[in-house]
Amino acid sequence: MDIADLAKRLGATTMFSHLPSQQLVALLERSPQRQVRAGERVVDSVNGLKDHLVLLSGELEARRTWTETDGSENSSVWRVGVEADGPGFSLLSAASRHISVQAMADSDYLSIDGEELDDLLGWGDLSGNAAMARKLKLFHKIPLENVERAFECMVERLVAVGETVVTQGEPGDSYYIILSGEAEVWVTDPLSDDTARVAVLSDSDAFGEEALLLEGNRTATVKMISPGRLLVLNKSDFDALVKSEMVEEVDAEQADDMLKRGVARLLDCRYDMEYEESRIRGAKLVPLDKLRREGVFSIAPGFTYIVYCRSGRRSKAAAFLLRERGIRALSLTGGIKEWPYEVDSNMVA
Q: What pLDDT sits at residue 145?
């Protein structure tokens, strides 16, 4: 299998077109290639389809099951195969945990981690700080637009060897990211008064968030052991962009009830290809990249919207954009992947 050639062909599809070619090649190189015999089960319904399957040869049958509101069980079935005169592959998206997959012929496929692809699709729209932000777990808890703005608000600060940046016991006033240099973290036990070094921080490490999140004092002293450069986000910007609850979420049961009562409208912020394959019934497609450019103005104000994507990450960014315009938008927790009810599909057999 020629990874570069497959990346080029996948890059022509809507789902993968937003990834830089080198990033897509690297993703494919990390994705295991597997072979299955006809009749073998690829994914069972208990674990569900968590990965995107790139079928290189053969044929797969997918079955999605769900429970109707009256408690009865239902299912839909579709097949994907590689045609001789086609693009040389077929895609089966990780759209739901309720999907089982079985090989209908001897098959060869790549398994692309669904969470990693979601992460790349979301973070890929950020500036050059994206690689750094992805390493910091704190930024994985807030909308991507907030991450972008937080970096815009940060001020670079030069620090000297031996300089104390924060002192244990003082009120927290800033959040710090190390661009270069090393720092030691020292903690003094309040009972014994013993002081010990507990960590050494270096490039792309961060500190200072605990005191800001808890509205308390610093729990450690951080001292530079080499000259360095820091990015500093002050408390007011941290509170507004990181600490504040910028996105309201809703679970599947609540969302289904709101939609049935007609008190909310449904938006799908995935790409066209994902929407065409499967979607929650009644959803209007407004891809996140379009929403970021001009699509927000196509959404009528005065309504409550429930926004979903595959896993709930992109929908948080979409909900934030709508909220900025004064539109109440809720992000569907878990996305279509965790939606337990019926979905529409163009691939139902």
A: 76
Report the alpha-carbon distance of residue 200 to residue 33 in Å, rounded: 39
pLDDT of residue 94: 74
pTM: 0.57
Pairwise CA distance, residues 66 & 278, whole Å: 14
| Gap between the Cα atoms of 283 and 310, Å rounded | 13
Residues 63 and 79: beta-carbon distance below 8 Å: no
In CATH terms, the superfamily for domain 144-243 is Jelly Rolls (2.60.120.10)
Please answer whether residues 155 and 144 qualify as being in contact, where contact means their C-beta atoms are separated by less than 8 angstroms: no
Q: Does 161 score more than 90 pLDDT? A: yes
The CA distance from 287 to 267, in Å, is: 9
What is the maximum alpha-carbon separation in the chain? 75
pLDDT at position 327: 87
Q: Is-contact 288 310, C-beta < 8 A?
A: no
pLDDT at 176: 97
Structure tokens of 308?
A: 């979903």
Q: Domain 3-122 maps to which CATH number in 2.102.10.10, 3.30.1360.130, 2.40.160.20, 2.60.120.10?
A: 2.60.120.10
Superfamily covering domain 248-345: Rhodanese-like domain (3.40.250.10)
What's the CA gap between 254 and 41, in Å, rounded?
A: 33
pLDDT tens figures, 237-276? 998 888 765 578 899 999 999 999 999 999 999 989 899 8
Q: How far apart are CA 270 and CA 281, in angstroms?
A: 14
